[in-house]
Amino acid sequence: MCIHTCTMAVNIGKLFRHATWRKLTRYRSQSGVRRLHGVLNPQVQRYNALLSSSQCGCGRMSESLFQRPEISMSSVRLMHPGSPKGEGIMNVFDRKTKRLQRNRAALLEDAHVYDYLKDEVAFRVSDRLRDITRKFPVAVDLGCGKGHLAKYMQDDMIESLYQCDVSEEMLESSSSCENIPTYRVKCDEEFLPFKENSLDLVISSLSLHWVNDLPGALRQVNLCLKKDSPFIGAMFGGDTLFELRCSLQLAETEREGGFAPHISPFTDVRDIGNLLTRAGFNLLTVDIDEITVNYPSMYEVMYDLKGMAENNAAWSRKLLLHRDTMMAAAAIYKDMYGNEDGSVPATFQILYLIGWKPDDTQPKPAKRGSATVSMKDLESLNQVK
Fold first, then answer.
1. What is the pLDDT of residues 144-202, one digit of tens each?
2. Could you tell me which residues are beta bridge partners of residue 136?
3. pLDDT-derived band of residue 122, with 50, 70 and 90 as boundaries?
């Protein structure tokens, strides 16, 4: 069966920041341009004046998908409410820098060499999706990267997949699902372009830990999902790369009399459940997994992180790390955490999140006082009558 793939890149981040379109990039595919099932936002759908006479792929677009919107920033915020009024949004990460880092990582000649961790996490996310005995008509892979989740999607799980990423180079190099129509949309995870109640599934693997307004992003995901639809995600936890963090801090303190944050801050597992609840999800499931990878030295750890596009993008990052400080950090790393064979471990703590958009058909907790068995009688269940 032919794989129908439509690739479209739209700078949604510029749309929401300046209320103007800067650039519309259209890619070609074997099947030409297909309609996006009407799941894009109305402000995005009305771009017919520019595209009505354009040619793309093997035929002319029968219906426009995008239009230059004439809306104010206040209407955008009402359309996709982020954090509530009066709640400050943390501006920790430089999103432009992160997009450039992802672009550079996608253009590496040996880019596939650094996919081992994200492929493993994507497999575990897809395994959790298989526990749901339902086929989802419209699914979104938020922060798809190079299509790590698409490698494990089957036609008995989803009917169509939208791959979304802030990096255009990542989108061009991303893998497509076999026998599943796949569409690529360039957008920022903090500003989703989809209509309300239009998605049946949203999945995300190792992307949301770079979002500044995580509560707002989760709220937007909940807004775009249909009722009784799940969000399944994975992100790095607070104990990720603690070996590298401690080694750099000790070395920099000893050599330079102080230290700067070289490892980006991550979300703690104790906060995830509260964030999902505030975003409007219920039937929550949060579990933790740790993946330990052994490297020859600290330098290979840092080199592979750059190849994964997981290098630091915080505004407070220090751009220069002295050579003697790095040598001291490598020695501390090996001395404190080194293995017997001379290698050094790097721990990645993975937080897996599952939340459902509320619906009246979902199971409800029993009324208080309706139990027929007392907890103190549980021991009697093991007694043989």
1. 999 999 999 998 999 999 999 999 999 998 888 878 999 999 999 889 999 999 999 99
2. 158
3. very high
Q: How far apart are CA 354 and CA 125, in angstroms?
A: 10
Whether the CB-CB separation of 203 and 129 falls below 8 Å is answered with yes
- Specify whether the CB–CB gap between 298 and 329 falls below 8 A: yes
Helix H or strand E encompassing 8: strand 5-10
Confidence band, pLDDT 50/70/90 cuts, at residue 260: confident
- The DSSP output letter for 218 is H
Q: Please identify which residue in the block is written with the tokens 């230290």.
A: 259
Query: What long-range pairs does 109-118 form, CB within 8 A, spacing at least 24?
Result: 110/307, 111/146, 111/173, 111/307, 113/307, 114/304, 114/307, 114/308, 115/146, 115/148, 115/308, 116/293, 117/206, 117/291, 117/293, 117/308, 117/348, 118/145, 118/146, 118/148, 118/205, 118/206, 118/308
The pLDDT of residue 87 is 56
Which residues face 9 on adjacent strands?
25
Q: Name the token pair of 267.
A: 């979300």
User: For residues 279 and 231, what is the distance between their CA atoms, to the nearest angstrom?
Assistant: 11
Q: Are strands 5-10 and 136-142 parallel, antiparallel or unpaired?
A: unpaired
Element (H, E) at 299: helix 298-307
Contact between 281 and 222 under an 8 Å Cβ cutoff? The reply is yes
Rounded distance between C-alpha atoms, residue 216 and residue 102, angstroms:
23
Residue 110: CB atoms within 10 A of its CB come to 7
Q: Which parts of 23-171 are beta strand (E)?
A: 24-26, 55-56, 59-60, 136-142, 158-165
For the stretch 172-198, what's the b/e string if a residue is b when 16 or more beta carbons lie within 10 angstroms of its beta carbon? bbbbbbeebbbbbbbbbbbbbbbbeeb
pLDDT digit string, tens, across residues 302-351: 999 999 999 888 887 878 888 999 999 999 999 999 999 999 999 999 99
| Angle, in degrees to the nearest 10, between helices 298-307 and 95-106 | 100
